[in-house]
From TrEMBL:
Record field: transmembrane: 871-892
Alphabetized InterPro entries for the sequence: CHAT_dom (IPR024983), TPR-like_helical_dom_sf (IPR011990), TPR_rpt (IPR019734)
Sorted UniProt keywords: Membrane, Transmembrane, Transmembrane helix
Record protein name field: CHAT domain-containing protein
Ranges of residues in domain CHAT: 589-857
Length: 901
């Protein structure tokens, strides 16, 4: 009990600032020396702790050296209690000085110390709570929830209802931040059962519940709860803590009224919030202040007062430290924060209403720049998709403005701006996959480098935000951030060396720039699509320049017609195409005209298509280029007869893949799952496919029970071309791309840790380039999954293919590769061979049979060995035979009897 009492007493002192006498340094040194001589470790520790609390920043190094300066370890319960107090104070003082990662480490060390020594000391308030709060500050809500659950377990065990209720509130905030409103609301309900109606904790619970309802757009309940909560708080005597609760309540109430378009009421609540901030915090709650000012600007914008709105938005930017006295934005100071994303976008809308399109465009681009600065991971899939969808709508607005300026001014610069916006939107999607791979690798490999990288990124973001709270901390936090960024560069370098696939992360971070076109080969011809909510944009790039931009209005009907076309004629087998050839012909030609009719696609020319959203389901080779219907299907004017098509996810991704870790071997490996349902069902098509390829290509053919995870990893490491014939799907809450092998499944993120990757992966699984449609994210596909782990290209199928056609076209593609053709041309020629050959009937010339496979990625020639004896072996044997023949000839010549003349 004595240990606990002293622990709590000294803990309370950590929150009190004491003025130190001028001779305190010498006095403390004398006291410490005396305590050391008497072997009094307990008081020696508390003396150092007390001294460190006088000036935390200046004495931090002194406090952190305590373990080094101690002459022995703790032995008695009192000494263990004092040592635990030291670790707790180290955590608090590190946070106070801006070292949040070191603060986390100290609290973690304290918790482990408490566990190891089984100390009878209550650690909730002074270790667990601040430890969890640190993770919340970094946006690592999963770890925060883990610690919060420990606090809750303790509170329930001790029947501490107030602690349990406050912990439920914190857990609700974490769940809400993850987008899990169901668990958030459930946590609030459980918290309410632990409180009285008039308790202070109930204020926190109701504030959070109102926020949850507002996020769910349940505005009626949100208004009712927050209004009652404000009335309850007005009866309290406000202090530094309760005033902050009321400030939060006013902000929530204002947000609810703004959502209901009750602008006068909303404005009243926001001004009450500002008044609380000025009265109790001298206006220094800068993030809350910036938030309120932005919302006031939105009110003015909704009232048609754009100039007043811009003034408010500029005040927000000044509060964030992003606006110079001259009114220009300091772009280098922009950091990742939803409030910054929002204020730039709202400012853009205000300029739009004033007819200043150039300023509107610039502010949306700054908003998107802030999006790219966000370092935290959105763990919940739905939250992430919602965020990406909102970002894409912002990008569409920016393109709309830039296109208008392009039409008005005829300045080519705006065409490059449009390309830049589209490219950044697409590259963001692949970057998200790469980040997710890292996140999953962190969990699987338990490699501390991944964890260090994540923590460093989050700490940098936290410090950038924290600079807004206390201008006096600018010097220490800026230095801390510089140190963190230096460490981050070192960690990323180590990760790139250890996991070469992750090198693409650095490139993907750059996203697109005006210089991206200069990196393309001179003759590259690209047609890139952006499927917006209202408008579809098609941009043509040729000879390193933006040549043409097409705007297709009424995006939704176009999307629906393409989706209906694919669903009717491809996804459910060939029946519809066979029964309605003319309807297919005309529908296909209509899509061609809508998408490509304005572009010059010359004969024998190669074009790279960069699709978006629903277009990811469509193979362009089979599109009909002429509207004159011919009953003879073999004579139909398919695009493939005119142009060679390949695909990419973005220009930046294409460049990344061209620089990717190429496997220079000539090795081929194929995994063929010839049985399913644990070997009970034989799949003859897969066995036939393996045999047809085996006649053409030399390499490792892995079938039956050998097609397991270990053989797959071995093949992935060694092969230049990897053929995979198995089922594929998206699995788990995170919708991870997954391959089914003989003994187990393989998640694609696992392959990010391999040292090398195949140059080409051929995916002979059902609909491997197809995937799930997600708002703002496009097609979540296995093909993009392979691009995210470092492969240079994939051949994949868009629908369940006809076995005979697939086997013939795949085999022919390999023969063309052996003959020295680039990958896209090898596939292109094999499809043409099918169309130009004799078939069993006219129906086999329909695109359903031959057009499923597409190539996505960096095009190149691949050296693979033909079947039979490798040519270098044949040359060696041939040379040996010739040599042996020569030796035998000479020997026989010597043995030949001489003839007398």
């Amino acid at each position: 009990m004595e240990v606990l009492t002293r622990f709590l007493l000294v803990s309370l002192l950590t929150f009190t600032v004491v003025q130190a006498p001028k001779d305190s340094e010498q006095h403390v040194k004398t006291a410490l020396d005396s305590l050391k001589k008497t072997n009094n470790l307990t008081d020696w520790l508390y003396t150092r702790i007390d001294h460190s609390n006088i000036n935390r920043r200046k004495s931090l190094s002194f406090l952190m050296k305590t373990e080094q300066d101690a002459w022995r370890k703790a032995k008695t319960p009192d000494e263990h209690g004092a040592w635990l107090m030291l670790l707790s104070n180290q955590g608090y003082n590190q946070l106070f000085s801006g070292n949040i990662l070191e603060s986390i480490n100290s609290y973690e060390h304290a918790y482990n110390y408490w566990t190891k020594h089984n100390l009878n000391i209550e650690i909730t308030d002074y270790i667990l709570k601040p430890w969890a709060n640190n993770y919340t500050r970094l946006g690592d809500y999963e770890k925060a929830l883990f610690i919060q659950q420990k606090i809750l377990d303790f509170a329930i065990k001790e029947h501490d209802n107030e602690l349990a209720a406050s912990t439920y509130n914190n857990m609700a905030i974490s769940y809400r931040s993850l987008g899990d409103f169901k668990r958030a609301e459930e946590s609030i309900r459980l918290g309410i059962t632990k409180t009285q109606a008039n308790s202070r904790v109930r204020i926190l619970l109701d504030n959070t519940l109102a926020d949850i309802y507002k996020d769910k757009n349940d505005l009626s309940n949100a208004e009712q709860i927050i209004s009652a909560n404000i009335a309850r708080q007005k009866k309290l005597q406000l202090d530094i803590q309760t005033a902050y609760w009321l400030l939060s309540s006013y902000i929530t109430a204002g947000n609810v009224q703004l959502a209901k378009r009750n602008y006068t009421t909303a404005e009243k609540y926001y001004h009450l919030g500002l008044s609380i901030n000025n009265q109790y915090y001298k206006g220094n709650r800068l993030r809350e202040k910036a938030n309120i000012i932005t919302e006031l600007g939105k009110i003015k914008l909704n009232q048609g007062k754009a100039v007043e709105a811009i003034n408010y938005f500029n005040q927000t930017l000044s509060t964030f430290g992003l606006l110079s006295p001259s009114g220009s934005v300091n772009e280098t100071a922009i950091f990742g924060d939803n409030r910054i994303i929002d204020v730039f976008y709202q400012k853009a809308l205000a300029y739009l209403s004033l007819g200043d399109d150039q300023s509107a465009l610039e502010n949306i681009r700054l908003s998107l720049f802030a999006v790219d600065k966000i370092r935290f991971e959105l763990a919940d899939v739905k939250t992430k998709q919602r965020f990406q969808g909102e970002t894409k709508q912002m990008a569409e607005k920016a393109i709309e403005i830039a296109f208008k300026l392009l039409e008005q001014t005829k300045q080519h610069h705006y065409a490059e701006v449009i390309l830049d916006i589209i490219e950044k939107t697409k590259a963001r999607t692949l970057l998200d996959d790469i980040r997710r791979n890292q996140q999953q690798l962190t969990l699987q490999t338990k490699d501390s480098l991944f964890l260090s990288k994540q923590r460093l990124e989050r700490a940098i973001t936290y410090n950038e935000k924290q600079l807004l709270q206390d201008p006096e901390e600018i010097r220490s936090l800026s230095k801390s951030n510089a140190d963190l960024k230096f460490k981050l560069e070192s960690v990323e370098k180590q990760l790139r060396e250890k996991y070469p696939a992750l090198g693409s992360v650095t490139e993907a971070r750059k996203l697109a720039s005006s210089g991206v076109l200069k990196k393309l080969p001179q003759q590259t011809h690209i047609i890139e699509f952006f499927m917006g909510k209202e408008v579809i944009y098609v941009i043509e790039v040729k000879n390193r320049q933006v040549k043409h931009i097409k705007k297709i209005v009424n995006a939704l009907p176009v999307k629906n017609s393409i989706n209906e076309f694919v669903n009717t004629f491809y996804r459910h087998g060939p029946a519809a195409m066979l029964d309605q050839p003319k309807q297919f012909f005309m529908a296909s030609n209509a899509i061609y005209k809508t998408l490509l009719a304005d572009f010059e696609l010359q004969n024998s020319q190669q074009v790279i298509i960069i699709p978006d959203e629903v277009l990811g389901h469509l193979s362009f080779d089979g599109l009909i280029t002429d509207d004159k219907y011919n009953p003879s299907i073999s004579a139909w004017p398919y695009l493939i007869k005119k142009t060679s098509v390949s695909y990419a996810f973005s220009i930046q991704t294409l460049l990344n893949q061209s620089e990717q870790r190429k496997n220079d071997s000539k090795a081929f490996a194929g995994l063929f799952i010839t049985h399913e349902n644990k070997g009970t069902k034989y799949i003859p098509a897969v066995a036939k496919e393996a045999e047809s390829i085996k006649k053409l290509v030399a390499g490792d053919f892995i079938t039956g029970k050998d097609a397991d995870v270990n053989h797959f990893f071995e093949a992935f490491d060694k092969a230049s071309v990897l053929h995979i014939s198995t089922h594929s799907y998206l699995s788990g809450l995170q919708q991870e791309p997954t391959l089914a092998l003989e003994d187990n499944q393989v998640f694609l993120f696992e392959l990010s840790a391999r040292k090398t990757a195949p140059s080409l992966v051929v995916l002979s699984a059902c609909r491997t380039a197809d995937g799930i449609m997600a708002s703002g994210e496009g097609i979540i596909s296995l093909s993009r999954g392979f691009a995210a782990i470092g492969t240079q290209g994939t051949i994949a199928g868009l629908w369940n293919v006809n076995d005979e056609a697939a086997a013939a076209i795949t085999a022919d593609t390999y023969q063309n590769l052996i003959n020295g053709k680039e990958i896209s041309k090898a596939l292109h020629q094999s499809k043409l061979n099918w169309l130009n050959g004799k078939r069993n009937g006219e129906q086999e010339y329909l695109p359903y049979y031959w057009d499923s496979l597409i190539f996505i990625g960096h095009d190149q020639k691949l050296a693979i060995e033909p079947a039979g004896m490798p040519i270098h072996i044949l040359l060696i044997i041939g040379s040996a035979i010739l040599l042996a023949s020569g030796i035998i000839y000479l020997a026989l010549k010597r043995l030949r009897p001489k003839v007398a003349h």
